[in-house]
Amino acid sequence: MSKVCELTGKTVMYGNNVSHANNKTRRRFLPNLQKKRIWVAEENRFITMKISTRAIRTIDKKGLLQYVKELEAKG
């Protein structure tokens, strides 16, 4: 499965594990993605999305359509 938020586009970041001896090995930072059923009142149905927890919190605060409009305006 892909590790990308469907709304924000958040994806995997890469970096290093750094030991006490300063040895560096590559690692991945995974986004905190959750499968979430969201009620869309305008369409009178649920939609299932794979979104980050930060996006879930914003949707709870502003609503799905308002958040999507802001994302589209932002680019």
> What is the string of helix and strand elements?
EEEEHH
CATH topology: Ribosomal Protein L24e, Chain: T
- Backbone shape: elongated
Q: How much is the radius of gyration in Å?
A: 17 Å
**Termini distance?**
25 Å
Task: Give the CATH level 1 class.
Answer: Mainly Beta
Poorly predicted regions are none
Walk me through the structure:
- This protein is α+β, with helices and mostly antiparallel strands.
- It has one domain: Ribosomal protein L28/L24 (Ribosomal Protein L24e, Chain: T).
- The chain is 28% helix and 37% strand.
- It has two helices and four strands, in the order ββββαα.
- The protein has helices spanning 53-62, 64-74; strands at residues 13-18, 24-29, 33-40, 45-52.
- The strands form two sheets. A two-stranded antiparallel sheet has the order 1-2.
- α1 packs across α2.
- The longest helix has 11 residues, at 64-74.
Compile the SSE list and pairings:
Layout: E1 13-18, E2 24-29, E3 33-40, E4 45-52, H1 53-62, H2 64-74
Helix pairs in contact: 1-2
Structure described in brief:
This protein is α+β, with helices and mostly antiparallel strands.
Provide tags for this entry.
75 residues; alpha+beta; Ribosomal Protein L24e, Chain: T; two-stranded antiparallel ribbon; two-stranded antiparallel sheet; 4 strands; 28% helix; elongated
